[in-house]
Design a protein that fits this description.
Bound molecules: flavin-adenine dinucleotide
CATH class of the largest domain: Alpha Beta
Distance between the termini: 51 Å
Strand content: 15-25%
Number of strands: 19
CATH superfamily of the largest domain: FAD/NAD(P)-binding domain
CATH architecture of the largest domain: 3-Layer(bba) Sandwich
Largest sheet: 7 strands, mixed
Radius of gyration: 21 Å
Low-confidence stretches: none
Helix content: 25-40%
């Protein structure tokens, strides 16, 4: 393949204590936590809004803040939830603790909190690279936007891109795939004109039952039985979720294999899934009276990504530790969602309910030999099964909050992320309301 070499001078346009890459559920709370600890902080985000998969992917509900009615994710994420509810944009489904939300108000609520905390925002800015100093230290993140190429220097970086983009650029080793397929990509869509007051839909769109899959079983059974005559592509669920607006449900149903970190794969999946959205909407309209007047009112900005890269951290959380609620000496957050693995091919899903709420160790947020890098959210160090629970939004918010506090401590003291004082980190997290 022909190659070209590009050399250019790039201005270092700002210098931060903590720079967060990615403004999704993990990144927003990493930035809020760091800024509230006094760090000068910024977020780099490719879109013109915050929320990541929750808003760009229309992924709902927001799972899950409680385990058997006991809160397991607290602090700033809980404050967000209360503010979102007060704005009329969130609704906690009890007893399960899933949160139904309005994605536009989710964006607005996050944006308000971030700006109030004094966090700088670089929207419409894509992280494309980094410069490295000695001994694995990241010096600058390189971003591209309409200003051109810019560099942002920071003492500490928190990778919340979901795909571990910064960590990969810096050369952090990643979890091996061991020949196992990635979980499938799914494009969410919103249907309007649905009979949301019908018993079938009003029950299915509230994900509130503990210990059961919240998919719409009668529709699933019909679709599986008539799959051939309906000529439906592979599907999951379907799961319907209220957007808090009468007549509207978000639909999680499409499914395609693909690696979102491979541009050609992801492009092909986007195009196929957009077609599938309309095939599935037609199928629902033509076969179920609750959908007879429905139409597609929104398609997610991007195909939802369940799984891509995860770092090989100082500790990799195993499924055994996770399911049994193993308490690490450096636990910094928790998770309460079932282990939830969607088949890459076909219509199935493996779900494993937890014996108790799980713990997350600080060592899963850092790698050996990278002294000023933390990760949070979907790309932390976990095996495939533990990850399949930790990937949900509230868990990502919890690790973001912990990474933000740790990053601010490192920036203030000059210590490496590997030598953070764990007792002090945990007590700061408890002070701000984290449940550990
Ligand atoms: C189909 C599907 C169903 C799901 N169901 C649920 C559910 O029911 N409940 C639940 O809670 N969770 C669910 N999830 C999981 C959850 O939405 C995500 O795992 C979670 O949002 C991950 O948060 P994050 O902050 O780590 O990453 P993301 O949400 O992916 O956020 C990453 C952010 O970084 C930005 N970014 C990425 N790369 C760059 C770059 N190079 N430059 C600049 N910006 C960048 C992105 O735009 C994004 O804003 C589901 C996911 C999918 C795909």
């Amino acid at each position: 393949m022909q190659t070209i070499t590009i050399t250019k001078s790039v201005a270092v346009v700002a210098n931060y204590d903590v720079l967060v890459l990615g403004g999704g559920p993990a990144g927003v709370f990493a930035a809020l936590a760091a800024a509230r600890q006094g760090a000068k902080c910024a977020i780099v985000e490719q879109y013109g809004f915050l929320g990541g998969m929750a808003t760009a992917g229309l992924v709902m509900p927001l799972s899950v803040f409680t385990y058997q009615n006991k809160r397991v994710i607290g602090g700033i994420p809980w404050e967000f939830l209360e503010r979102l509810e007060a704005m009329g944009g969130g609704y906690i489904e009890k007893p399960l603790g899933n949160v139904a939300f309005d994605p536009e108000l989710y964006k607005l609520c996050m944006q308000r909190m971030v700006l109030e905390a004094g966090v700088d925002l670089y929207m419409h800015s894509y992280l494309t690279g980094c410069t490295m100093g000695d001994n694995g230290t990241i010096q600058c993140a390189i971003i591209e936007n309409k200003n051109g190429t810019e560099a942002l220097a920071a003492k500490v970086f928190v990778d919340c891109t979901g795909d571990a983009d910064l960590a990969a650029m810096a050369g952090v080793p990643m979890q091996p795939q061991n020949g196992e397929p990635l979980q499938p990509l799914s494009t969410y869509f919103v249907l309007a004109g649905v009979d949301t007051s019908s018993p079938l839909i009003s029950e299915a769109m509230h994900h509130n039952k503990q210990g059961v899959n919240c998919h719409c079983l009668p529709i699933r059974e019909y679709l599986l039985e008539h799959a051939e005559e309906l000529n439906l592509p592979e599907f999951g669920g379907p799961w319907f979720c209220t957007t808090l607006h009468d007549g509207c449900v978000a639909v999680n149903m499409t499914r395609a294999a693909g690696d979102a970190c491979n541009n050609r794969d992801y492009t092909a999946a986007e195009c196929r899934l957009r077609e599938d959205v309309y095939r599935m909407a037609d199928c629902l309209r033509n076969n179920f009276k609750e959908f007879e007047n429905c139409y597609v009112s929104a398609v997610a900005t991007q195909a939802g990504i369940r799984e891509t890269r995860r770092i090989k951290g100082v500790h990799t959380m195993s499924a055994e530790e996770y399911i049994s609620g193993y308490q690490y000496t450096d636990s910094i957050s928790r998770g309460a969602h079932p282990i939830d693995i969607h088949a890459t091919k076909g219509n199935s899903q493996v779900t494993h309910f937890l014996e108790q709420a799980a713990y997350v160790p600080y060592r899963a947020l850092i790698a050996e030999n990278f002294p000023n890098l933390l990760v949070a959210g979907r790309c932390i160090s976990a095996d495939r099964k533990a990850f399949a629970s930790m990937r949900v939004q509230a868990s990502c918010m919890g690790t973001g909050q912990a990474a933000g506090v740790a990053a601010a401590m490192c920036a203030a003291s000059g210590c490496t992320v590997q030598s953070v004082d764990i007792d002090s980190l945990v007590s700061k997290l408890r002070e701000i309301g984290a449940e550990i």
